[in-house]
Amino acid sequence: MTKKIILTADGIGRVLARIAHEIIEQNKATKHLILVGVHTRGVPLAKRLAANIENLDELKIPAGALDISLHRDDLFSSNWRPIVRHTDIPVDIDGKIIILVDDVLYTGRSVRAAMDALIDLGRPQSIQLAVLIDRGHREMPIRPNYVGKNIPSSKHEEIQVKLVETDGIDEVAIVSIAKAKLLKGELRKVGYFKRGYYGSSQ
């Protein structure tokens, strides 16, 4: 297994600062914004973006956490059972502009599940998508509004995102998977979400 570092802590910080600027530029009425992170690593990313926006625009943006476990499209089609986490969005989402935040965009299935989960909670004015990494290989018509870094990758590779809040370090790496391990994994998962990194979102 080979590993190549794509982003260090400084790189992640610069990327999030840029995304915060882009969010402000695209949404003039920032008082209507809510940042919602997808568990797990989307949550600290949403909080960091909220802090960046507050520093730039002097306006505190609500940041929440969204669990998508029960909205996955493979929920009843595999032996996998979800770990249900807490959804915590501190304000009503009706009529608000939701910035959905995730770490890795892959097939698009997790984003679809996240949008379903949001709609169950209310009727936002719009939903935008911000991701730290877009690795391609889309299986659904999902396109992010804000991208930290595009990383072309093959299905023989994983994108590993680590954050201080969850892993003790800020780092993004691309890891080559042994073909034997990949084949074994493909045979084992039927309808299972293809992961972009260990436990990552799609």
Walk me through this protein's architecture.
The C terminus is likely disordered. The strands form two sheets. A five-stranded parallel β-sheet has the order 3-2-4-5-6. Helix 1 packs across helix 2. Strand 4, helix 3 and strand 5 form a beta-alpha-beta unit. The chain is built from five helices and eight strands.
Question: What attributes does this structure have?
Answer:
single chain; 202 residues; alpha/beta; Rossmann fold; 3-stranded antiparallel β-sheet; 8 strands
The profile of the biggest β sheet is:
5 strands, parallel
Lateral strand order in the biggest sheet = 3-2-4-5-6
List segments where confidence is low: pLDDT < 50 over at least 5 consecutive residues: 189-200
Radius of gyration: 17 Å
Overall number of structural domains = 1
The third-level CATH topology is: Rossmann fold
| Count of helical regions | 5
Q: Outline, from the CA principal axes?
A: globular
CATH top-level class: Alpha Beta
Structural class designation: alpha/beta
Distance between the termini: 22 Å
Helix and strand pattern:
EHEHEEHEEEHEH
Summarize the topology.
Layout: E1 3-7, H1 9-26, E2 33-38, H2 42-57, E3 63-66, E4 97-105, H3 109-121, E5 126-134, E6 146-150, E7 157-162, H4 164-167, E8 171-176, H5 179-188
Parallel strand pairs: 2-3, 2-4, 4-5, 5-6
Antiparallel strand pairs: 1-8, 7-8
Helix pairs in contact: 1-2
In short:
This protein is of the alpha/beta class. The chain has five helices and eight strands.
